[in-house]
Design brief:
With 496 residues, this protein is an alpha+beta fold. The chain is 17% helix and 26% strand. The chain has helices at 10-21, 36-41, 208-214, 239-250, 253-259, 289-299, 344-356, 389-402; strands at 50-52, 59-64, 109-116, 125-126, 130-132, 139-144, 152-160, 167-176, 187-192, 219-222, 263-266, 283-284, 287-288, 309-313, 317-321, 361-366, 407-410, 416-420, 427-431, 450-454, 459-467, 470-478, 484-493. Helix 3 runs parallel beside helix 5 (253-259).
Amino acid sequence: MNTQKSPVSRRAFLKTSAGLAAGALVVARTVPDLTAASVASGPHQATGTRIGEVTSTSAIVWTRLTAAPVRNQTGQDFTVNVREVPGDQLPKAAGPVDELRGACPGAPGRVRVRYGPREDLSDALATTWVDVTASTDFIHQFPLRGLRPGTHYHYASEASAPGGAAPTAVFRGSFETAPAPDAPAEIRFCVMTCQGYPDRGHPEGHHIYPAMLALKPQFACLTGDLVYYDNDAPRASTVRLARYHWERMFSLPRLREFNRQVGTYWLKDDHDTLSDDAWPGRQMGEFTFAEGQSIFRQQGPLAEGPTYRTFQWGRDVQIWLVEGRDFRSVNTMADGPEKTIWGAEQKAWFKRTVAASTATWKILVSPTPFVGPDRPSGKNDNHANAGFRHEGDELRAWFKANVPDLFVICGDRHWQYHSVHPETGLNEFSVGAASDEHAAGSPGEDKRYHRFHLVKGGFLSVDVKRQSGQCLIRCQMHDVHGAVVYSWQRERNVTA
């Protein structure tokens, strides 16, 4: 089991959770007014907020305090990636990281979250004030509990200077809780992956973010490679440079706007843990795989415990999010029964929880593919490759025997496809890179597998609804601007 600890200390996490579970206090009926003096003094929230791990009764609100109200708009900029120059020749930072374009240096202070179903936050509940310091990169994650199922919540993240001075910044957002597990409900969610910073397609962020937001999804799955430590300059050879990659990406206006109002589930892959095809124990400069694991837990709104987990949205939808880096064998190890990506405990958990599920549709969301096909050479990192064929065959056979209607949505591949495994019938949807500029690498269309194949960027949406005694699920591939380029659906008879 993953024993990696959250950046929020266990003591602080339990203290906050206990306070919220016992019932937070009702506070003032309006968000506090900010004075010009307090705003000028800071701290601010240039990296916005994030909502994660949403259930029918809980959610996590991620916050971070910054020294300036917006990202640094001047300083050294980086517009190249490893496809344009060799990785060891990527430009390096010429000065302090805090002065690079896109940097959002953190700042000490206090933060709390006020939240409730009313947009004006009248009668809102509030967390306790929490001090943030450099020890957690000025981040705090607030677990909210005791929420109502199927409810739209509004919140305000309030910041102040150390010592309890007047509020200096308020950042507002909203999210929707999942329906109760026994409640039929219409569900829509989106899935994306692989967003390079030089390849974002627009100065304010990737086109997919306003396109996804226009669909009004109840949640989104971010399936890894959310930053590229090794391919996007400057290479993250230190912890500070690694954090800079997150600051630069997630302070982009389009990403801030999306993440403040859509619940998300975060998965990591290789480039946002350390480097291409990385496994535990590796290192890049001074930056280690273990440090990459820890930073991902800081940057994603994640609860303590294993990074593999499952969530149910009403009676008809359950998703499993799996971990592909923490438990894997060395990629270069000879294939066989002992070689693994998932690890024994994760496999046992998956089989147990899938067997216990009563959801109409069971969906596996994976950072990497199970079907592909992948490139015939140069890749040996996932269950669609020869290097992990034994475990891939084992899992595909188990899916067929035990959950034949399960299907996979995967990240990692920079092209879109719907594939069906010839031997087991497993359906897999690759959502494609987050931009057209980042799309590449396909070995080409293979009629034995592909029902759809397109070397373009975009994202996937999934819709589930009941009508006339049936439950319908529809998966649609979208281009980067939201237009539908492929659609697939199935129906199943259901009772009330």
